[in-house]
Amino acid sequence: MAKILAEVLGDGVKRGLGQTRAGGEVPDVVAPPYWVEAKRMKRCSPKAALAQAVEAMAESRSPEFTTPVAICKDDRQSPTVTMFLNDWLELVRRAHGTQDA
What we know:
By secondary structure, the chain is α+β, with helices and mostly antiparallel strands. It is 35% helix and 24% strand. The protein is globular. The model has no long low-confidence stretch (mean pLDDT 90).
């Protein structure tokens, strides 16, 4: 997943290692401003993965991460992305050059 995201977001993207030496959580994929939790299993729970991203991001208190994202892949299925609607709308606004109403 880190390799796929790096193709779009650039060289700053890398795999997270689960925990830092200081004991703080890091995302599965380090891609600021996105806190990415990546799950691959028989049946993923996108809501649970997003909740994990929200909780871990809050606990990290790192200002570089502002947007929780869950990327889930069930066996033999295409990956999906789950995020909050307001975060997605902000991405769409930036992509289309529009501003908040």
